[in-house]
Amino acid sequence: MSSTQVRAGESKPAQNKLWGGRFTGGLDPLMEAYNESLSLDKAFYAEDIDGSIAWARANKNAEILTDKEFKEIQRGFEMVRKEWETESFDVKPGVDEDIHTANERRLGEIIGPAIAGKLHTGRSRNDQIATDLRLWVRKKHLEIQGHLESLLKVIVSRAENEINLIMPGYTHLQRAQPVRWSHWLLSYGFFFASDLERLQSLMKDLNKCPLGSGALSGNVFEVDRHGISQGAGFEGLCWNSMNAVSDRDFLIDTMAWGSRFMGHVSRISMDLCIYSSQESGFVRLADAYSTGSSLMPQKKNPDALELLRGKSGQMHGITFGFTSTMNSLPSCYNKDMQEGTSAILSTIHLLTTSIQILTGVLSTLSTNPANMVKALEPSMLATELADYLVRKGVPFRETHHISGRVVALAEKEEKGMDELTTAQLQSIDKRFDDNVRECFDHEAAVEKRTAQGGTARSSVMEQIAVMKKFLETGVMPAWSVDG
């Protein structure tokens, strides 16, 4: 007989385990540690207590509990809650395998097992954990929404206050056209606003009540599930009991949302890493979000941005991992689903801290307008030359080719396009006049982009107004600030 088998047979399951009656042998200590989840799901202590009180009230209304018994359960749970809040709850290793067991065990010690033993009537840990998770994730969604709104307010404030700054806009990491710094900020602001809208949309599916579904087949005591749902602040029911206990889509949705959001975080972090480099020098991170080198005293590293970029990969891994866990599971509850607890706890922690770090970075970094202007090359105005000829009636495909020849000539002459003489420009196309010089003005080029969504001051100010309206009402205007 193996040592594992000897250990497993030495003791019977503790009497207050919620499943112990059918078993005659004890658990291998390694299995006991492998199986326990209290170290993680204790995060849901408040939700577990709230759900248990709601369940006790339903059992009182179904005349399974007397009014006096319900009040005792309620009183006992408030004492248990206080112990968790003050970190004085005494966990019993080997007994308290999860938050449900721990709370009910302690309740029995406070009010006695005769009443506490009635609490679980008609309830399973399957619908209990599903309820705890939904309540907890719902609370965290609202917290994340608040953090996202704070991030958007920082972006809008900087965009409004620094609207005069003009910098290179990039495609393929190549300098492309001049844009306002505010325009770049708002490009991510609208990403994050879209993320906020998407997160809000998840609430409808999340905010459904599974309690009263039992292990899988429903409840035999005719509890009022509508009353339970409304009392716990849910907006509806999980209508099928088998679906209710097996559904973890709301966790996957949250993780998938996190992956999408962190993808946006990673992209703005990458941009800011480039903009804060010595090669660009457009921005400088505050010391609070930078570190130095252990060898090179001159270094100031954008560690906050690099960590945000790295956390994006971690978020994708969490999402893929739990999605893979749920893939091909048979119907109803399976213990594999316990892995959702660590996945969602990691997800919420990663998202909450990342949003706050990014908000801190954006609210404290400083800009260097001189370096932004220095990086504005004449070649970035090549499209202006093409548009100049378009206004003279020349087809754009032709003007694009003509402008490209001007760029090539400037490169051959080793000078900027703005340094070419009018005669040199006319050697390429006679339709260039002296007023072509007006094209070689970066700010004028910016100000021509007046269509909605563009980088002209008026367009950027409209975007700021749209974002303010969104933050005020929670609804993104479809066509204008007024609707």
Question: Could you name the key traits of this structure?
Answer:
single chain, 483 residues, mainly alpha, two-stranded antiparallel sheet, two-stranded parallel ribbon, 21 helices, 6 strands, 59% helix, 4% strand, elongated, disordered N terminus
> What is the rounded distance between the termini?
76 Å
Mean of all residue-level pLDDT scores: 93
Question: What shape does the CA trace take?
Answer: elongated
DSSP helix fraction: 55-70%
What is the string of helix and strand elements? HHHHHHHHEEHHEHEHHEHHEHHHHHH
Catalogue the unreliable spans.
Answer: 1-10
**Cα gyration radius (Å):** 31 Å
Describe the structure.
A hairpin with a 2-residue loop joins strand 1 (about 165-170) and strand 2 (about 175-180). It contains 21 helices and six strands. Helix content is about 60%, strand content about 5%. The chain is mostly helical and about 475 residues long.
